[in-house]
Amino acid sequence: MTSINELKKRASWLRREAFEMIVRSKKGHFPSSSSCTEIVVALYYGGFLRYDAKNPKNPDRDRLFISKGHAGMVLYPILEDLGFVPKGEVLKFTKADGIFRFYPDPTIPGIEAITGSLGHGIGLATGHCLVGKRDKRSFRSYVIISDGECYEGSTWETAMFAAHAGLDNLVVFVDRNGCCIMDHTENCVRLEPLAEKWKAFGWHTLSIDAHSLPEIIAALELANSGKIKGPIAIVAKSIKGKGVSYMENQPSWHNKMPNDEEISKARQELAVEAV
């Protein structure tokens, strides 16, 4: 397994890449991407996600669904780095001649589904897991959902079904950054106690720091241990806009673009994070 220090460097690299993507295109959602950065780094570079860059639809692959589709761009630098797509595609993010679109879709190698509509990714992943069980395949589906998606009825309908079906091949990370597009979640409709709600729906539930790679790895090791019966929910407390001080924990930055002065400040802060 890659060392924690190397994974931290990867996370810093990914945040810088994601920020530069939005600066070049004037499109994208950096704050939402930055809150789940360590999770996707642990999955891809920590040895947990089984993938085949040369055969992205390998039926035995593990699946990753970024259900909070506005953060799907966080995967693009990884897909280029690992050889799913040619080098240089990140530079063409949202351009007519590029592969990477504003929202991810399955025409992009390594992307499982369109997830722009909140609450759908978890259902899609659950369907894959159910078929995997019936076909006696060993793959897992990992899903990253936003806490805002926990307002969706489809999320809880799926949670009930997955627990009923005993889908121990399903792992859901709830990106608990406390912000949605309108405001802080607890000012909109209170979600707490969120972990207890997942537990009440029949899921084995963990609460971790979404930016602590040791905690993420420990949770994934448990999820892969074979000791857990049924689906696993990992409520990951995160910071929306992590790495850029003026964006952190600020709902107003959900899809706002920085000006030149703010770009310079963010680059300085993201460079310091990488040291």
Explained architecture:
This protein has helices spanning 4-25, 30-34, 37-45, 76-81, 121-134, 153-164, 185-188, 194-200, 213-223, 260-274, and strands spanning 63-66, 141-146, 170-176, 204-209, 232-237. The protein is an alpha/beta fold and 275 residues long. It has a single domain (4-274), classed as Thiamin diphosphate (ThDP)-binding fold, Pyr/PP domains (Rossmann fold), CATH 3.40.50. The protein has a five-stranded parallel beta sheet with strand order 1-2-3-5-4, with helices on both faces. The longest helix has 22 residues, at 4-25. The chain is globular and about 50 Å long. The mean pLDDT is 96.
- Beta-strand residue fraction: 5-15%
The residue ranges in which pLDDT falls below 50 over 5 or more consecutive positions are none
Examine the coordinates and then state which fold CATH places here, giving the name of the CATH topology.
Answer: Rossmann fold
The helix/strand class is alpha/beta
Rg estimate, integer Å: 18 Å
Average pLDDT figure: 96
Count of helix runs: 10
Span of the ends, CA to CA: 22 Å
CATH class: Alpha Beta
The CATH superfamily is identified as: Thiamin diphosphate (ThDP)-binding fold, Pyr/PP domains
DSSP summary, beta strand count: 5
Largest sheet: 5 strands, parallel
- Provide the succession of SSEs: HHHEHHEHEHHEHEH
CATH architecture: 3-Layer(aba) Sandwich
